[in-house]
Fold this protein.
Amino acid sequence: MARLSQARLASLNKSFEDRTPEELFRWARETFGDRLAAISAMQQSGSVVCHMISRLKLDIPVVFVDTGVMFQETLDTRDRLAKEYGLKIITLQPKLTMQEQTEQMGVLYLDVEGQKRCCHMRKVEPMAAIRGKYDALIGSLRRSDGGKRGECPVLAVDPEMNALRINPLAMMEDEPLHNYIAEHKVIVNPLHSQGFSTIGCNRCTTPVLPTEPKRAGRWRHLGPWSMYCGINPTDLDDATSQAIDLPQDLVDRILGQKTDFMI
Ligand code: SF4
């Protein structure tokens, strides 16, 4: 095994800055083969990821974490994407139902520390079911979403999953995203047209005013102290000091030291 740190990805990340999402999807498929999956929360950028996988015929499975308290519109969007785009969508769930969790631990999402525990149990821990199965996970983070995502790299290490996170849409701004959705009539979560700029659990997500930041509707009841759930490693404060362990041969391929596939 070889250590792959965030720092070792710096020059590759720089060279990926002018690549299109489609080129990055193809690089990911060629580099990781069947050890590659995508993650989608069934928000609009996740729908674009699903559409590109289908349009480019990449046959990449899509992982969805159902916390048990998702909006029905989100579940319906997942089912439509699977059926109409011919995708394999893997749904992961937490060990406890929200009812069981509440009976055992109380209503966690009503204070900041409880929210972290709740998000960890209901969003991060379910991902353990696929830990070790994939060397890379495609996400849908975009810098245009602002906050901690304002500088998210295309490639980021994810120590929790021991996998590389790939964000092919990182450089896609709002207007190109909306143009892509309109041009291809992409299936999107209907809550976006009802005032929700981002969409998570029904307990912790509200619509936002046009004058508010995009993430103002997430954990609104907790104030500005809760902004992220912890499922994306680049949302964490210490992300740049992290590293993962992958087979030497694969690290060579990622870093372009084996040149059987380059873009
Ligand atoms: S978003 Fe709210 S309900 Fe969902 S896992 Fe996090 S704290 Fe729990």
